[in-house]
Every structure is written in C-alpha cells, then in structure tokens.
Write a structure and sequence with these properties.
- The protein is α/β, with parallel strands linked by helices and 449 residues long.
- It folds into two domains: 253 residues, 3-Layer(aba) Sandwich (Rossmann fold), CATH 3.40.50; 177 residues, Glycogen Phosphorylase B (Rossmann fold).
- 38% of the residues lie in helices and 14% in strands.
Length: 449
C-alpha cells in the first residue's frame, strides 16, 4: 500500500491538529527533522497536520532539499517574523562565529553587551517577538476552521526556541483546545543559556515560565529520560510527561531494507573510514580519541581515517592537525540526504556529544540514523548520560573526552562489532514513533470530550 496522503473518504475519521514550530524547511540541521517526519506520517494514523511556521526566519543553516519532503496536502501557514537580535549580532560577531552553547565564549565587549541584552531582556529567547503575531494568526485560523465546519481538535508546540510554547500557552487559555508541548531539549538547564550571562532574576524567570507551560499544557513530550527528569520538578508534572524519542526514517536510509538488512557491501580495504556528522565545537573536542587513533595508526595494520561533515572549530582543527596530520578530511557542511549517503559509505560512525550538563540529557538525532545503517559507533559523551545508557542498550560502549587508553580499546572492538538486533532498529523508525504520537493525541483529545 502506498504511503501517500489519504483522502477524507479513505480515512473518514481524519482529525486536525495545529503544530506551531520555528524550525521548518528550508531550515536545515537537526531541529527541523522531528516534526518534519511526524507531519509526514501523521495522516496514516488519522491526524491531518497544519503547520504554523515563521516567514523570513534567520535560520543558521539552510537545507532546501528538505522542502521536497513536505506533501502538497500539508497546509503550511507562514507568519512573518522580526528578528532584530540576529541582525545586531551579525554586525558584531566575527565571520564563522560559533553557534550557541559551543563552548567558545571569547568575544569583545560589544558582543558581550549584545549577548547580555539577548539573555536578560528577550526572554525566554529573541523569538518571543513572534509570539503575538503568530498567536493572532493561529487564532484566526482556528476560528475560521471552526466556522467552516472543519475544526481543529488539538494544538502542538515544539521547542526550542521555547518561546514557541508561550504561543501555545496563549492559545490554550483562549481556545481551551487540548495542548501538547514538545520539548526537544531542556529549557532552564540548556547549556547555551550560559553564553548570555544570565542574572539570578533571569534564572528565576526561566524557571517560572517553564513551570507555567508545564502546569498549563495537557501533555508534555520529552526526547530523553534526562529531559523528563528536568521537567519533573514542577508540581503536577509527573502525570503529563511522556517520552517519545527521535528516530530514523526508512526513506532517508535507502541502504537499509525494512527488516534492517544491509544492502551495501562492507569496505574491506586497508583504510577504515570513521565519519562524524555535525559540527565540532570546543565543547565536543575529544583529544583522547585523537591520541588513541594516532596510536592505532602507528601500531595496527589497518589505518583509520577520520571524515568530518559539518563545521569544525579552528581550535579543534588545530588539535586534529597536532595529533593526526594527514589522517582526517574536512568535507564541510552538506545537505541531509548527502550526509546520510556519506554515512552509508563509512565503516564506522562517530558521535561527539556536548561536554556539558545538558549534554548528559540530550540524544542527538544522528544516533538513530547511525543505528539504522547498522554501522559500528564510537561514542564520546559525558558519563553518566542518557546517551551512554542508550548506546549501551544498543551494544556500543562510550568513552570520555581525554581517555586515550579507553579510545584505543574502543577502536579494537569496533572493527568486528556484530551490529544491533533488527528488532531494536525497527522500534526507532519514524513511522513507529509517529504511531505512538498519534496514540498520545487520541488519548489527549478523548479526555477533553
């Protein structure tokens, strides 16, 4: 049976849900993937999504190829956004500036002032200026749909940016429609907040806003156990919190069949290619691994070559050049589909998690695409962490950032790793996870009737 959109006759119980999101194609990067995929598969489970997204957003990364994944039958409402902070910051920051939370806070006094204003005036984030226009547009659309006899039955907001949840807060109070808040990352404990020199008052304000959203929403989704724990501190939150992780899409991983079997032959050449996909900032630097690879290449017959797809901070580049001259390649940023194709060409895949407190609670989306491809994984992450636990369940160990001995031992185990069981791979498909989302929506709306 084809996976295309269903007509009303084919699915007479189809119901409507309004999803408010900041990241949407042509935005690239990991923030767009979760709800792009949910929107793709929701119609197969009785829900027709309408997306309300910004028009003219200052996305840090663009990937126009993702626009082809948005069905013509998915209604997308674009509401203009004004982002003065991004314009101001672009005037003072150097070319190739780091993204937030990258661990590089070396900047001049003007840059520091702009960041302080952003962190202590525009709360919870600069996209809060989109709150009122987006809220008004959403309310108009909800009311028009009601008048047309095609009402919406639920609202979903997804953050970060967490100011999007304030739009849901307004709509919940105005319309009384069931509201699901999706937290892809922590809020008050997110590592990048420290980039903005928050005052004690600002920290209290984040806690207050986070608590109000959790108290008012009818259900809150989390992507990891650690994020769930972070939000569970709020009174009454425990019964609202549900865990639906990220996953992988069968359409994005053509080299893996529906039952998880690899169709690509393994590389038996002398060089063993280890690929990292995503930016590498100082907060992700792993000198222990670089030293471990250098030792491996001196002692073993089969040499390892590192491949990086994404932005590499100059400080990290210098470290790589120091330890691994001629043993790594910088391919730069590539579109998502190109990245997945390159993943399939690797012998092993590398995850470098943020060395921060919030890094303990985050699960990078690429981990699931790595899982789908059945490749051995080298994982560098804080310990303990949610990522350590998850990849441990998949059969992969993780190491710290400075431990060259552990890195050398890890490399030895990677070469002949048997892979992850098919049942584990399939449980993390976007299709299976969307079924869980639809069940949560069904339960949420059933309670409101």
């Amino acid at each position: 049976m084809e996976d295309g959109p269903r007509t009303e006759d084919e699915h007479p119980t189809q119901r409507r849900v309004l999803i408010v999101a900041y990241y949407w194609p042509p935005a690239g990067g990991p923030g767009v993937q979760r709800w792009l995929k949910f929107a793709k598969h929701l119609p197969d489970h009785g829900w027709t999504p309408t997306l309300l997204v910004p028009d003219g957003a200052a996305y840090p990364v663009l990937d126009p190829s993702l626009e082809t994944e948005v069905s013509d039958d998915v209604e997308v409402l674009r509401v203009p956004i004004f982002e003065p902070y991004e314009a101001a910051l672009s005037l003072v920051r150097r070319q190739g500036a780091e993204r937030l939370g990258s661990g590089n806070r070396k900047s001049g006094p003007v840059d520091q002032l702009v960041r302080w204003i952003r962190g202590n005036v525009l709360l919870p984030d600069p996209r809060v200026l989109w709150r009122k226009p987006a809220g008004r547009a959403a309310l108009r659309h909800l009311r028009q749909a009601e008048a047309d006899g095609q009402p919406f039955e639920a609202i979903i907001t997804t953050g970060p940016p967490h100011s999007v949840h304030l739009i849901g807060l307004d709509l919940r109070k105005t319309t009384e429609l069931p509201w699901m808040a999706d937290f892809r990352d922590p809020w008050r404990e997110m590592d990048y907040l420290e980039d903005f020199l928050p005052t004690a008052r600002t920290r209290r304000r984040h806690l207050q806003m986070e608590g109000e959203v959790v108290a008012t929403c009818d259900m809150a989704l989390m992507t990891s156990k650690g994020i769930r724990t972070s939000f569970a501190v709020h009174p009454g939150a425990e019964d609202k919190l549900q865990l639906i992780p990220n996953g992988w899409d069968e359409d994005d991983v053509p080299s893996v069949s529906a039952n998880g079997a690899e169709t690509e032959p393994k590389n038996e050449a002398k060089t063993w290619n280890l690929g990292h996909f995503g930016s590498v900032f100082p907060i992700r630097n792993a000198p222990g691994l670089w030293k471990g690879i250098a030792r491996w290449n001196r002692e073993a017959n089969r040499r390892i070559h590192l491949h990086f797809y994404g932005v590499i901070n100059p400080e990290v580049q210098a470290d790589l050049q120091k330890h691994l001259p001629g043993q790594w390649t910088d391919h730069g940023y590539v579109a998502h589909r190109q990245a997945v194709s390159a993943m399939a060409d690797m012998d092993g895949l590398l995850i470098l998690q943020n060395r921060s407190e919030s890094g303990r609670h985050a699960i990078p989306g690429k981990a699931f695409e790595y899982l789908a491809l059945g490749k051995p994984m080298a994982v560098v992450t804080p310990s303990p962490s949610d990522l350590t636990d998850l990849v441990g369940e998949w059969g992969f160990p993780s190491i710290g950032y400075e431990d060259a001995e552990a890195a050398f031992s890890l490399l030895d185990t990677l070469m002949d790793h048997p892979g992850t069981p098919e049942s584990v791979r399939i449980s993390f498909t976007r299709r299976a996870l969307t079924a869980r989302l639809a069940q949560s929506l069904d339960a949420l709306t059933a309670e409101s009737r």
